[in-house]
Design brief:
It contains 9 helices and 15 strands. By secondary structure, it is of the alpha/beta class. The protein has 2 domains: 334 residues, 3-Layer(aba) Sandwich (Rossmann fold); 31 residues, no CATH class. It has a 7-stranded parallel sheet with strand order 6-7-3-8-9-10-11, with helices on both faces. A two-stranded antiparallel ribbon has the order 1-2. Strand 4 and strand 5 form a beta hairpin. The longest helix is centred in the C-terminal third of the chain and has 18 residues. It is globular. It starts with a strand and ends with a helix. 56% of the residues are buried.
Length: 374
Amino acid sequence: MKKQFIFVLDLLIIASSLTFGLKGYRVWFNQVEAIKVHVRPNDPGLQKSWVFNQKDALDALDAWKIERGNKKVIVAIVDTGVDTTHPDITANLWKNPGENGSYIDPQTGKIKNKENDGIDNDGNGFVDDVHGWDFSTSSHHITDEHGHGTHVAGIIGAQANNAQGISGVSPQVSLMILKYYDAKASGSDNLKNSIKALEYAVRQGAHIINYSGGGPQYVKEEFVILKEAEEKGILIVAAAGNEASDIGERQYFPASYELSNILSVASIDQEGHLASSSNYGKKVDVAAPGESIYSTLPLNKGGYGLMTGTSQATAFVSGVAALVLSQNLSWVEKKAAPLIKNKIQKSVKKLSTLTNKVLSGGKVSALKALENNI
């Protein structure tokens, strides 16, 4: 059986999408102190982001007076990879504790770094998976040839107050990079690799998984790993999709799976209207900014640029989720997903433009989510 899998891959100002046929289918002490003194970071690119400049768009600047994130919070990004050399991304890349550090080789007496010794030091089946893994090439090289993954990573957790570029919603976080997409691969292979990426995230300690992919058919293997995530209390922030459809009538997975740990996200524009391409309906939980979003791009693609879609909206919500979990780190020992989801859903800003468009009837507010004592 063929599964249509739609993944919005937006470059610069022009939003483009690809449709695939798929079978069945992280000196930062100084940074912290600087942010405490300067609520608005000195990142010049924030001036180019309407989300950070428009009053009430996300309330991130006010939210940072309460919480700025925590490196203990791990957000897995299942996407096209990331530019690991990007100055706004590098400091916040997740470091696999089992593949980090050095040791003395007993045979040579020389010091070796676990990061590049060609050994699976933690025995998890992946060699030198320091920041994540590329499932499309079975390699630790998580290079982003496309740009989408780097853009999403910047929205969630770009480093703040480094006097360049932008800041992510959670400027302190650990970003686990899981690349599954290969433009030259078949749709079936991309699906299989996305499921492998989800399995890695669930089993390697991610607390939040940002997943922008999806399609109209139920896939058993995908459901099974997301069910395992539910049992572990891992939050799945899933894009509602970009077909301008009611996913209560035309289902879009994984957003449509009946799982308590899935938080599905629609996209809105600067005026608070549902984006023309965004999916909607009672299966969609919340909305967030997704139109003309300024964020990081691979350095060979300009370093920064605009993209549009529910992928971007989803990344903003993942960033807010990371702030909420950072504020409530004890939840890590519990089933955090429903607690985070409830906080975000119950603290949305109601908008008449979103009535009957998303279940909560509103857009996400980082400030209200942190102030909410539910």
